[in-house]
User: Fold this.
Amino acid sequence: METAESELASKKNFAPTPVAELDPCPTSGKLYRHQESLPRLPIPDLAETCTTYLKTVRPLVNDAEYEKTVAAVNELLKPGGVGEELQRRLIEQDKNKSTSWLIDWWNSYAYMGYRDPVCVYVNYFFCFVDNKRFIGKPASRAAEIITAAMQFRKLVVGHNLEPDLARKTPLCSSQYRFLFNSCRIPQKREDTTRLANPSENNHVIVMRKNQFFILEMVVDGRQLSTSEIESQLELIYFFAGEKDDLPIGAYTTQDRDSWFKIREKFIASSVKNKASLDKIETSAFVVCLDDTKPVTYEERAWECWVGDGRNRFFDKSCQFIVFDNGVAGFNGEHSMMDATPTSRMCEYILDNLEKGKIDHGEAAGKRLLPPRKLGFDLTASIIRDVRVAEAKFDTLVAEHDLKVVVFEGYGKNLIKKLGCSPDAYAQMAIQLAYFKTYGKCVATYESAQTKKYAYGRTETGRSVSVESVAWVKAMQDESLTTEEKGQLGRKAVAAQSTYMALAADGRGVDRHLLGLRLLIKSGETKPALFTDASFSTSSHWTLSTSQITSEYFLGYGWGQVVSDGYGVAYMVKEESLHFNLVSLHLQNDVFRYNFLESLREMKAVFEATIPQKR
Assistant:
């Protein structure tokens, strides 16, 4: 979901909009009550970062390459040298920021300055577990989701949501500001975020057959009941008819520079176009009523990830998707929020609906004005731009392949009984499956959240270690016993857990090294560490991975970040494991088979080495 960092620091003319200027983070109410007491994101010690870096490089390079890397590290650490100067500049950068030394850089380089399409390379999706009551009843399913989403929105906007916790540690709530009434806006060189006043914009945009309808959620000071919303949605199905409109939403599938130029021309051509786009961008969220009926895991994942690229507006932070068979899901724009706020929102919606904790309201018995369809003035140029966007999207997604691994042999409950961290266990399954497929180990990115710090987002968890490489090789060695393989596996699991703890503590290597690189001035020579081949090798994220787990989700995923790699999103549920695999038509089928085989084999070796209880 995040771009390869080796490409990020090459961008110039960098002038991000500081996150504090977009919308100052509140400090009152339940949601923000810990904000002022949260510690700042730390700047790691340079020597510690270099030592950790060498550990992560060692399993990915040969002896000669490693010796060059050691020499480059030693050069960076010379007393009075360039490393000390860059570290000094980073400390000054931190002193001059009211938020954190990293947040504005990261939002810019990883997201807002990224110019490729968001719909494949940035946005992510969740597939929801079915509600059997609403099979074949999409209007009923959508109405309930809208009501529950509005209830969650009320908690967020009113600052009455309890803040996230990691065990008992409070986490930063700043990302919740971008959950509702938020939209990414294409700009030249670097995008920005538009935040609309939620008290003045209580409408939801509903899309059907590529058409946009305004669903006003508050009428005469009262929010519509679920039954009223359902009636309004039924009208939208009727008004939309059976014929697709020109898909203006396809604009948002373009690369960002093309979309910026198109948007400028689009709003300049007509007052109506500008007003209609304004309604979309300021809406609380978008609901896409699709006319497809996905059934399989792959069909659901594909439709929630990209769909047909027409009945979507990918710049909105939140899009709920409901299909004609009652299947539902979610698509999120990733720029200003990681997936934790949206996954919490979706779990809140599904859990509270199932448990009957949503207030569905009472119909007022008063005739409502029907939903209004947004209109556009369509010139020949606009029509041509849309057709080009459609063609580009179709070509882009045809280059991709998506496969889903669902392993129902066991899940988190058994993994804990085996004495393993469920996340580390899943990461080792990824390593083993890849090794079985390609016969080698590659740089692996796992997202580690740093939200225990003010304005924290993520750090890279480097999942490959000397221990993990030794273990995957051992698993293919028939001369070793089951117990020997299990003991090596436990060392690999422990190494992964140790690094993830460092990363979550703000002491991983990637964000620190990024900050140092960004402070190299024009005309200055790059330190050898950043031109060393091992630097590129160890940050070329062939495997880009992340976990979001909910018993209410059937799927979760996004695209790969390098052309020769995979996007691997996973869930470790109580009795199953799910992996979503996306690549540019690499060996997805073989990779999927090797996941299933790996998980069966892992159970045997970890069962044979369960630690004795003391």
About this structure: The CA atoms of residues 11 and 109 lie 8 Å apart. Confidence is low (pLDDT under 50) at residues 2-14.
